[in-house]
Amino acid sequence: MEKKDLALNRKILEYLVTIGIQPKLSGFEYLRLAIKLVMQNKNYLANITKMLYPEIAELSGTRTACVERSIRHAIEVSYNCNGLLG
User: Fold this and answer.
1) Cα–Cα distance for residue pair 45/85, rounded to 1 Å
2) How many DSSP H helices and E strands does the chain contain?
3) Rounded to an integer, what distance in angstroms lies between the CA atom of residue 22 and that of residue 76?
4) pLDDT tens digits, residue range 11-41?
5) Angle at the Cα of 35 (from 31 to 21), degrees rounded to 5?
6) Which of 54, 16, 50 is nearest to 32 (CA)?
7) Of the candidates 64, 57, 63, 72, which has an alpha carbon nearest to the alpha carbon of residue 25?
8) ∠ CA 81-85-86 to the nearest 5 degrees?
9) What string of H, E and C letters represents the secondary structure of 13-44?
10) The whole model's pTM is what?
């Protein structure tokens, strides 16, 4: 892994923690991966359920529905614990 990639991973991790997403949740890792994928291909933003979630599921060896639910759960936990995401 290149220095640039490591720095990006760290920046994403720090941001997610800053807004209150808990690293222990599976949704945390899916969100981290989602951010990286969107940075590589902005088309994912217009096709979240048709392209982004299935890509994350494939890369993670799980189902699309699990990815969506885990991301939603991570955001709900952050919202309920911290208010408006931070």
Assistant:
1) 20
2) 4, 0
3) 11
4) 999 999 999 999 999 999 999 999 999 999 9
5) 35
6) 16
7) 72
8) 85
9) HHHHHHCCCCCCCHHHHHHHHHHHHHHHCHHH
10) 0.87
